[in-house]
């Protein structure tokens, strides 16, 4: 049987285009957990994230999961992976956000180019758990992230229980920069992300301090628009977000003439650090204003992981909002500042989930529901079907091969035959002139060789053109 290599090549290339970029799934070990983890950087702040895969319906976009409070309202982020001891940076776009302190929910998805990620890093991905996934109790887990905004480090921890049934508690406690790190557990011999590290509870360095993680189940609820109203606070007292860097809280409200004075400068604050605009007239905004001691509007609060500095309306009038903010940012680091409240409520952020991100959750739910199971036998070729499949493939290959052979026969019967004659006669002439020797013989041989090369090019072009018409 003649085999059409053109057909085989077409099948291979076609399959590659149909399936898009593929990444392997992470195995349950620290090496793969490290490989799937990354550092997230936005203007003024750093956190951590996890590569959670690509959706079947959008295979050219890779998705990174992190905390909302790491990226805030900023649209662009830099994603840093470490491979073979070297940092590889990729630009990303924040495509989905969800924040609700009453759930709790604190999630963001960053999209990066899957082809570029494959070329630069080729990391494994950690599959998300399903809509009922949450860290186990007294369970060991793996994690990885960028402490203090440094390079990614992998580590092991243990869950201790839950606070009010909502927030998973664990040790050792995280440090600033580890917000957005995953809680990775082995479930039915497969690795899943069951939680996302969000808070430090207590004082950094204290042996009694703990970490707080949000179950992945809440990600599904938040992105699907479900509203959960707990009977008590889901966030432990003393919880502090673990992003490394600064964030800005700009308190204002409608019908506030002083607030309107600096309305044009407010967007420029995003060039300094992640910005939150807080409506002090709302319930959550009022609570945050009380926690930060805001007594007049507008007020800008610059917050670090443990200190904050307030810029009042009077401070703004001395220079401008932007210049006062720059001075206050220096004050957070070098001047006397006030302790940051344990946890300040932000206004909820509820974005309608995009079809692409909905596809990612659907794919993750399927993996979660099929964990520990053998492949679906209905999707496999039955033994009694193998002969028919083989016969169909054989007939298809034979038909394509015969068609190509007929095309080549047609080519040889026309202009190709003339070029073949030119080539054969030319080569014989070159041999004859070469035997003559001398300058004249070499000159004639060189001239004939040029003609032979032209005939070869014409023959190759003709064959290529006829094949491409098929």
Strand tally: 21
Tell me, briefly, the overall form.
elongated
How many H/I helices? 13
Backbone structural class: alpha+beta
Low-confidence region ranges: 1-19, 376-381
CATH topology of the largest domain: Thrombin, subunit H
Can you summarize the main beta sheet? Answer: 8 strands, mixed
Helix proportion: 25-40%
What's the N-to-C terminus distance? 20 Å
Q: Strand fraction band?
A: 25-35%
* Radius of gyration, CA atoms, in whole angstroms: 32 Å
Oligomer: single chain
**CATH architect. name of the largest domain:** Beta Barrel
What is the CATH level 1 assignment of the largest domain?
Mainly Beta
Tally of domains: 3
Can you tell me about this structure?
With 470 residues, the chain is an alpha+beta fold. It folds into three domains: 16-241 and 346-369, Thrombin, subunit H, CATH 2.40.10.120; 247-303 and 306-339, Glutaredoxin, CATH 3.40.30; 390-468. The chain contains 13 helices and 21 strands. Strands 7, 8, 9, 10, 11, 12, 13 and 14 form an eight-stranded mixed β-sheet that branches. The longest helix has 31 residues, at 438-468. It starts with a helix and ends with a helix. Mean pLDDT is 81; it is low at 1-19 and 376-381.
Please write out the topology.
Layout lengths: L4 H15 L10 H7 E6 L2 E11 L2 E9 L1 H4 L4 E8 L2 E15 L4 E9 H7 L6 E2 L11 E6 L7 E11 L3 E5 L10 E6 L2 E12 L8 E6 L1 H7 L15 E3 L2 E2 L1 E6 L4 H5 L13 E5 L3 H9 L7 E5 L3 E5 L1 H6 L2 H14 L3 E2 L9 E2 L4 H15 L13 H30 L2 H22 L1 H31 L2
Parallel strand pairs: 7-12, 16-17
Antiparallel strand pairs: 1-2, 1-4, 2-3, 2-15, 3-6, 4-5, 5-6, 5-21, 8-9, 9-10, 10-13, 11-12, 12-13, 12-14, 16-18, 18-19, 19-20
Helix pairs in contact: 11-13, 12-13
């Amino acid at each position: 049987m003649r085999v059409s290599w053109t057909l085989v090549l077409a099948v291979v290339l076609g399959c590659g285009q149909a399936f898009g970029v593929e990444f392997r799934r992470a195995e349950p070990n620290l090496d793969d957990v490290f490989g799937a983890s990354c550092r997230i950087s936005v203007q003024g702040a750093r956190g951590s994230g996890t590569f959670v895969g690509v959706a079947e319906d959008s295979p050219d976009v890779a998705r990174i999961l992190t905390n909302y409070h790491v990226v805030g309202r900023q649209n662009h982020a830099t994603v840093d992976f470490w491979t073979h001891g070297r940092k590889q940076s990729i630009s990303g776009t924040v495509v989905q956000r969800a924040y609700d302190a009453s759930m709790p929910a604190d999630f963001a998805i960053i999209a990066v180019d899957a082809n570029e990620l494959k070329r630069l890093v080729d990391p494994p991905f950690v599959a998300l758990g399903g809509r009922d996934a949450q860290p186990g109790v007294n369970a060991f887990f793996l994690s990885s992230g960028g402490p203090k905004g440094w390079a990614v480090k992998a580590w092991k921890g243990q869950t201790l229980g839950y606070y009010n049934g909502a927030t998973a508690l664990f040790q050792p406690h995280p440090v600033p920069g580890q917000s957005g790190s995953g809680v990775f557990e082995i479930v039915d011999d497969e690795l899943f992300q069951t939680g996302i590290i969000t808070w430090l509870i207590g004082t950094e360095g204290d042996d009694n301090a703990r970490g707080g993680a949000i179950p992945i189940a809440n990600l599904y609820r938040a992105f699907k628009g479900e509203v959960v109203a707990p009977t008590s606070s889901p966030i432990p007292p003393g919880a502090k977000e673990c992003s490394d860097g600064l964030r800005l809280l700009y308190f204002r409200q409608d019908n506030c003439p002083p607030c309107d004075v600096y309305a044009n400068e407010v967007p420029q604050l995003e060039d300094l650090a992640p910005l939150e605009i807080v409506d002090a007239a709302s319930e959550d905004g009022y609570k945050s204003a009380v926690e930060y001691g805001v007594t007049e509007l507008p007020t800008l609060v610059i917050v670090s992981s443990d200190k904050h500095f307030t810029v009042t309306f009077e401070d703004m009038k001395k220079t401008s909002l932007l210049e006062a903010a720059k001075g206050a940012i220096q004050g957070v680091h070098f001047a006397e500042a006030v302790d940051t409240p344990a946890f300040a409520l932000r206004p909820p952020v509820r974005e309608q989930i995009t079809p692409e991100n909905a596809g990612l959750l659907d794919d993750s739910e399927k993996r979660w529901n099929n964990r520990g199971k053998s492949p679906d036998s209905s999707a496999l070729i039955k033994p009694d079907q193998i002969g028919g499949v083989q016969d169909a493939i054989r007939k298809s290959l034979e038909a394509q091969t015969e068609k190509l052979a007929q095309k080549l026969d047609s080519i040889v019967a026309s202009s190709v035959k003339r070029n073949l004659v030119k080539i054969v006669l030319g080569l014989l002439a070159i041999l004859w002139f070469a035997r003559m020797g001398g300058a004249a013989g070499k000159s004639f041989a060189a001239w004939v060789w040029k003609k032979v090369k032209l005939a070869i090019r014409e023959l190759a072009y003709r064959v290529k053109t006829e094949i491409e018409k098929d």
